[in-house]
Design brief:
The structure holds two protein chains of two kinds.
Chain A: H1 4-38, H2 43-53, H3 56-67, H4 72-82, H5 84-96, H6 103-110, H7 115-122, H8 130-155, H9 160-166, H10 169-184, H11 186-204, H12 213-231, H13 236-243
Helix pairs in contact in A: 1-3, 1-8, 2-8, 3-4, 4-12, 5-7, 7-8, 10-11, 11-12
Chain B: H1 3-24, H2 32-50, H3 53-57, H4 61-76, H5 81-99
The chains are: A mainly alpha, B mainly alpha.
């Protein structure tokens, strides 16, 4: 049984844990805003994109595709592929919630399933009270969307030298997500290196010049991940570790 | 293509991915292959998107390469998401100061 006081306490705890996440988001979202600006998004459009997507890699893919004038199906498939990990996280979160959690709460939590919010939500002892996640969302979502918006606005007035430096912030974040598991698992580490190599080959190989970078990313991701799943199926404990 | 359409499509897909398992699946996925595939996807797709894009993002490709190496090393030795992102930016700033 949860009382109103429990919910308040959980919300405050989530708010507290969400503050460092929001600060990190703000800096990374700023660099994402620069990518949005380069793709022709206005500050309002970038703000709405971040407010409604809450996904770094997925949004970056959308900006790249938009810059290339890609079709909507390409955007849909790429968003699906870039955010596929959230499918797995939502599966785990559904196990973390009490089975009698109403649909409304499930739908609200779903709005901001990100690496970080998921990470702190799954780390709560016992069942997850949705209000904890709402507390974190209350600071993380503004940090993310306002950061993106300011990236578009301020990116215009920043010197080229600074824009060049900030544009790698996002890749730094991707690196921070893929390297720690590479250290723990030789298979993941090998896959990351293989992905670097094949991605480089696909980007430079003349025969593939007709394919957009988005399509190349989709193809490489599906082929490499599927081959890895068939060759190195993971034990249940590993997927749980990845989720926590 | 209207940018608002891109936003609408990406927002709808992003939300559906997240809400479908939470709303519908209350039991664990049993297929080991599907679980494994979903486990590997994030690492593979982020790696594919990082390289060689990071080298093409900077004014000097060498600066991007140095940022990649520095970011990997810092993350390997425990750097947080925020620290790694900032370190990559600083490396590019410093490298291009000398290179350009």
């Amino acid at each position: 049984m949860t009382t109103l006081n429990d919910n308040r306490a959980c919300f405050r705890a989530g708010l507290r844990d969400g503050i460092p996440i929001a600060l990190g988001y703000f800096a990374v979202a700023f660099t994402l805003g620069i990518a949005a600006r380069n793709a022709g998004f206005t500050a309002l459009q970038a703000f709405v994109e971040s407010l409604t997507n809450n996904a770094s890699a997925g949004e970056y893919a959308v900006f790249s595709l938009a810059a290339a004038g890609a079709g909507l199906w390409e955007v849909a498939v790429m968003t699906l592929v870039a955010n596929a990990r959230y499918l797995l996280m939502s599966c785990s979160l559904s196990q973390k919630l009490s089975p009698d959690t109403p649909l409304g709460h499930r739908m609200l939590i779903a709005f901001d399933v990100t690496d970080e919010i998921f990470g702190i939500s799954i780390a709560v002892p016992g069942r997850l009270n949705p209000w904890y996640t709402y507390g974190a969302m209350a600071v993380a979502i503004p940090g993310w969307s306002v950061g993106t918006c300011l990236g578009v606005v301020m990116g215009n007035v920043l010197p080229l030298r600074l824009v060049s430096a900030l544009s790698v912030g996002l890749y730094g974040m991707f690196i921070a997500i893929i390297v720690p598991p590479s250290r723990r698992s030789k298979i993941v580490g090998g896959l990351v290196l293989l992905s670097f190599a094949l991605s480089y080959a696909a980007a430079r190989w003349e025969a593939l010049a007709g394919l957009s970078s988005g399509v190349k990313t989709i193809l490489l991701t599906v082929v490499i991940s599927l081959a890895a799943a068939l060759l190195f199926p993971v034990k249940d404990t590993e997927t749980e570790e990845a989720a926590s | 293509m209207n940018i608002w359409l891109y936003i609408l499509v990406s927002a709808a897909v992003s939300y559906l991915i997240r809400v479908t398992p939470l709303a519908l699946i209350r039991r664990e996925i049993r297929s080991r292959t599907l679980r494994s595939f979903l486990y590997y996807v994030p690492y593979v797709t982020l790696a594919v998107m990082t390289f060689p894009a990071i080298v093409d993002a900077t004014q000097s490709p060498l600066a991007g390469l140095l940022a990649l190496i520095a970011g990997c090393l810092l993350s390997w030795f425990g750097g947080s998401l925020f620290q790694v992102a900032i370190a990559c930016c600083l490396v590019v700033l410093a490298a291009e100061w000398f290179l350009i």
